[in-house]
């Protein structure tokens, strides 16, 4: 070994030690600035409670217990001395969501993903000879210097992200209005009747029904529906056609989290650079994003040609991307560039604002699966829902009728979304110092009673959505029970104070509230309407069948003992 190499290794270790020391000092300084709160003690000096949280089959129960023990705002120790502030207080949540764009940004591990996207966009422009001169992009930093087009500059400066997102959201609003969803409802019916034709064929050979793995079919109908309604592309997934997109989604739903993925997740909040480790989760996301990028560009080019020639304008305008294309071609402040339109189609890592695929596919497929599980577990509720749907025995309800004339369907849908939010938690990082007001005062470790919490810049702030949606302190003693009737009763006083759609955090709230919630609700209601009106769903081994969480890249429910995310149900025609 050469002397230079010998000197280099110790030098690297010294630099690494200095860097780690700096991180620990910064963490300690942040701890001093943030008011000390009570919370559960760490079980590991190195990992805090991170390992316990990751291994828990249902961590929402622990968060609820901690809130009862330490108050509605408390701290949880993370790896290497970091801590996160957990909010379950309604007043604190209102402040958090209203400040999400200006104060609470995505954590550094999320910004690394954004930086990677920026670098890839820059490469695309350079290959297309659009950039006059090459810029400099450093992912993982708060500011990425780019000499390229404005749309690249728009996403590279952290303080501009909110402004650009606001402009893009304004352009997206017409695509998710009541009028737009009213037109798209027919697409959802077309998809579910296609599924019905396949199921009827399966049931023809059996007089006592058939065992159907419903989770797979809910994935298929959700992806086909969002493909057609979202950007006029039929994945033909219901017909069994495979593509890189369907393969990637299947893998994300079935691939278990490896030890490496768990370790990367544990360390990422303290050391964001570990997200460069090519875990199976990251590889799947990149594969999916590449596939969506190709589809999005091809669709955009085809529809632009059709738009310019006046062909198929009616079809184009009915899809979400068709309305985005209008914005892309419009000469206004809301004009979206080609890159911005494409970005709404492909996957943004861990982004709650990806309104097409993550809202249209993930939210609906998981929610539909949980709906069939709950209705199979509660046959009396399934029968009651079927009676509510019988008033439309001869035709399918319009979107307006789905909203206003089927109250028990509406209650069932919202009860599923309350108990089983597809996104169970979110974490943000304070972009600058903040003071969060509390509705219920908490007691600090020193015994002081406080009515607000000082948050230092860089502190992770965590919202346990599943915990809040199911909290007995907020929703009453039957909070964990599947009870659609609760939506006909007065919501408990505490739950009334919660922000969000129908006092649920399932679709988030504030300036980053999910734009696609009407899209998801329309698809959810239309599909469930047709399925429950035509079929009876039962567990082969009875309603006490145990359901567990399949911990994969995308967590999904499954019947205990099944290999992978599978929910086999006995399906019979309604007599």
From TrEMBL:
What positions does the entry give for heme binding? 514
Task: Describe the family membership recorded for this protein in Swiss-Prot or TrEMBL.
Answer: Belongs to the cytochrome P450 family.
Q: Name one Pfam family in it.
A: p450
**What main location does UniProt list?**
membrane
Protein name according to UniProt: Cytochrome P450
* Cofactor(s) named in the record: heme
Instruction: Choose one Gene Ontology CC annotation of this protein and give it.
Output: membrane
Determine the domain of life of the protein's source: Eukaryota
Q: What is the lineage of its organism?
A: Eukaryota, Fungi, Dikarya, Basidiomycota, Agaricomycotina
Keyword annotations of the record: Heme, Iron, Membrane, Metal-binding, Monooxygenase, Oxidoreductase, Transmembrane, Transmembrane helix
The UniProt record lists the keyword RNA-binding: no
- Give TM segment ranges: 6-26
Pathway info: Secondary metabolite biosynthesis; terpenoid biosynthesis
Task: Write the signal peptide boundaries.
Answer: none
């Amino acid at each position: 070994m050469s002397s230079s190499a010998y000197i280099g290794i110790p030098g690297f270790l010294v630099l690494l030690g200095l860097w780690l020391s700096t991180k620990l000092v910064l963490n300690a300084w942040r701890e001093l600035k943030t008011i000390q709160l009570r919370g559960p003690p760490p079980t590991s000096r190195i990992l805090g409670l991170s390992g316990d949280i990751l291994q828990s089959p249902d961590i929402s129960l622990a968060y609820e217990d901690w809130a009862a023990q330490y108050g509605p705002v408390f701290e949880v120790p993370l790896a290497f001395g970091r801590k996160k502030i957990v909010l379950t207080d309604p007043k604190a949540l209102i402040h958090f969501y209203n400040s999400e764009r200006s104060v609470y940004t995505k954590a550094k591990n999320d910004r690394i993903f954004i930086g990677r996207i920026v670098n890839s966009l820059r490469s695309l422009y350079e290959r297309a000879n659009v950039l006059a001169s090459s810029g400099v992009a450093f992912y993982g930093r708060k500011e990425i210097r780019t000499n390229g087009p404005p749309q690249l500059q728009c996403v590279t400066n952290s303080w501009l992200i909110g402004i650009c997102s606001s402009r893009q959201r304004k352009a997206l609003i017409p695509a998710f209005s009541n009028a737009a969803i009213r037109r798209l409802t027919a697409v959802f019916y077309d998809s579910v009747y296609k599924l019905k034709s396949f199921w009827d064929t399966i049931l023809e050979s059996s007089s006592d029904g058939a065992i159907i793995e419903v989770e797979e079919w809910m994935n298929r109908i959700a992806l086909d529906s969002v493909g057609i309604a979202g950007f006029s592309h039929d994945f033909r997934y219901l017909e069994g056609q495979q593509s890189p997109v369907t393969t990637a989604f299947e893998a994300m739903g079935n691939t278990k989290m490896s030890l490496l993925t768990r370790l990367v997740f544990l360390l990422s909040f303290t050391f964001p650079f570990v997200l460069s480790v090519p875990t199976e989760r990251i590889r799947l996301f990149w594969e999916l994003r590449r596939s969506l990028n190709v589809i999005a560009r091809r669709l955009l080019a085809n529809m632009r040609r059709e738009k310019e020639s006046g062909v198929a304008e009616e079809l184009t305008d009915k899809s979400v991307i068709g309305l985005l294309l209008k914005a892309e071609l419009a000469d206004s402040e809301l004009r979206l560039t080609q890159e911005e339109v494409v970005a709404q189609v492909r996957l943004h890592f861990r982004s709650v604002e990806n309104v097409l695929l993550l809202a249209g596919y993930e939210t609906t497929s998981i929610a539909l699966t949980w709906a069939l599980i709950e209705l199979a577990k509660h046959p009396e509720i399934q029968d009651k829902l079927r009676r509510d749907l019988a008033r439309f025995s001869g035709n399918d309800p319009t979107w307006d009728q789905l909203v206003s004339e089927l109250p028990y369907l509406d209650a069932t849908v919202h009860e599923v979304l309350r108990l089983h939010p597809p996104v169970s938690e979110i974490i943000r990082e304070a972009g600058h110092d903040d003071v969060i007001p509390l509705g219920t005062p908490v007691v600090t470790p020193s015994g002081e009673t406080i009515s607000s919490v000082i948050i230092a810049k860089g502190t992770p702030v965590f919202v346990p959505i599943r915990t809040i949606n199911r909290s007995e302190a907020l929703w009453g003693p039957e909070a964990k029970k599947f009870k659609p009737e609760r939506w006909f009763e007065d919501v408990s006083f505490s739950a009334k104070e919660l922000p969000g759609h129908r006092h649920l955090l399932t679709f988030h709230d504030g300036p980053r509230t999910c734009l696609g919630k009407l899209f998801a609700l329309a698809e959810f209601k239309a599909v469930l309407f047709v399925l429950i009106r035509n079929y009876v769903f039962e567990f082969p081994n009875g309603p006490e069948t145990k359901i567990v969480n399949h911990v994969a890249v995308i967590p999904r429910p499954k019947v205990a003992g099944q290999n992978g995310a599978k929910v086999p149900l006995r399906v019979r025609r309604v007599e």
